[in-house]
Amino acid sequence: MLIILMYHQIHQVLQPQRIKLFKQHLEYLMRNFNICSLQNISARKINLVLSFDDAYVDFYTHIWPLLKKYGLPATLAVPTNWIQTVADISLKQRLNIIYPQGLEAKTAKSQPLCTWGELAELAQSHLINIAAHSHNHCNLTHPGVDLAKEIVLPKNLLEDKLKTKIDTFVFPFGATNKQVNAYTLSYYKYALRIGGALNKSNGAGLLYRMDADRLWLNNNPLSATTILGLASKYVLNRVRGK
């Protein structure tokens, strides 16, 4: 059994309590589940994969220290076109940009996402699985989207700059269709979408994620009832051929 949780930005300057809530959330998950990477799933346990979208700088400054402290693996999805080479403004300025403004072209100079240097440091850790998150963070199902530019180019850029194998793609907005699925899986072993469903324990192919921001922000556990709902959604997806 595989559950993939989806997170975004954790830190917000006007809500310092968010960091404490997220720390408590991680500690709860550690007590109750086998937190692992996509590449190291156990067939006999309830596996939990932590995935973080968009590579906000707070992943480097606030989330990564917690993951390192607890020895927890995670997947970090990177939209390559928004990544700056280095930061030439203060960290405080970078952290002030809230989600999702950091993914807009007009805020690119504010450098709210990790830099290539910060990503390289993360990629060197055995805990962080860097994933492609398209080049421009666009909806891949829209007409006229250049799939090679949005799906293949990020893989090449990440592998070249970070010197690590990229085998995971995370669909922006969770949006995909059969054509996009097939194209993506011809280049990646794992393709992650949204859908709030359980996954088979082998962990390969098209995988569903659950929006976990509402869990930790409201201090809600990943309860047995929630897991049952994920299992039901998995069965429904199989029936519908998704």
Count the E strands. Answer: 8
> Helix coverage percent of residues?
25-40%
Q: What is the distance, rounded to the nearest whole angstrom, between the alpha carbons of the first and last residues?
A: 18 Å
Q: What would you say the CATH architecture is? A: Alpha-Beta Barrel
CATH topology heading: TIM Barrel
Report low-confidence residues grouped into runs of 5 or more: none
Derived structural class: alpha/beta
The rounded Rg comes to 17 Å
Beta-strand proportion: 15-25%
Largest sheet: 8 strands, parallel
Average residue pLDDT = 94
Principal-axis shape: globular
CATH class: Alpha Beta
Reading the helices and strands in chain order gives EHEEHEHHEHEHEEHH
- Enumerate how many helices there are, as a single number: 8
Domain tally = 1
- Output the CATH homologous superfamily: Glycoside hydrolase/deacetylase
TL;DR?
By secondary structure, the protein is α/β, with parallel strands linked by helices. It has helices at 17-32, 57-70, 91-95, 116-123, 147-162, 178-185, 213-217, 224-239, and strands at 2-7, 34-35, 47-53, 74-78, 128-132, 168-170, 190-194, 205-211.
Helices and strands in order:
Blueprint (H helix, E strand, L loop, with lengths): L1 E6 L9 H16 L1 E2 L11 E7 L3 H14 L3 E5 L12 H5 L20 H8 L4 E5 L14 H16 L5 E3 L7 H8 L4 E5 L10 E7 L1 H5 L6 H16 L3
Describe the structure.
This protein is of the alpha/beta class. It has one domain (2-239): TIM Barrel. 36% of the residues lie in helices and 17% in strands. It is built from 8 helices and 8 strands. The protein has helices at residues 17-32, 57-70, 91-95, 116-123, 147-162, 178-185, 213-217, 224-239, and strands at residues 2-7, 34-35, 47-53, 74-78, 128-132, 168-170, 190-194, 205-211. Strands 1, 2, 3, 4, 5, 6, 7 and 8 form an 8-stranded parallel sheet that branches. The longest helix is centred in the first third of the chain and has 16 residues, at 17-32.
